[in-house]
Fold this sequence. Notes:
- The protein has helices spanning 15-25, 33-40, 46-50, 53-69; strands at residues 4-6, 28-32, 73-77, 101-107, 110-115.
- It has 116 residues and is an alpha/beta fold.
- It has one domain (7-115): Rossmann fold (3-Layer(aba) Sandwich).
- A five-stranded mixed β-sheet has the order 2-3-1-4-5, sandwiched between helices.
- Helix 2 (33-40) crosses helix 4.
- It is globular and about 40 Å long.
Amino acid sequence: MSILFLTCGLPGSGKTTLARRLEREWSALRLTADEWLHELHPNLSGDELDAMRDPVERVQWSVAVRVLETGGNVVLDWGVWAREERDLPDRGTGSGRPGRAVRARSATGRTAASAV
């Protein structure tokens, strides 16, 4: 069964570090919006860069759904600190198949994962 990991936390809280660890430990595709934004728009910063976030995350969500449908694991490293952003697993994979979301957090330098 595919696993979708969502990072949750404020800027600078270690989300990307955790996402990289989950990527390695679970053989997952890591999708980090900030990395794509900086690659696509290297001359933008701050509010200008944030204005480009929605289109990047839409593409990343489409990629994530396809990977999940084909049996792969995905780490969405978006921050998702607003409650409505954390409701993404409710959207399902679009395949009609059940999905599984896992909450992961770093505790004393270790990855802890639990089914949600």
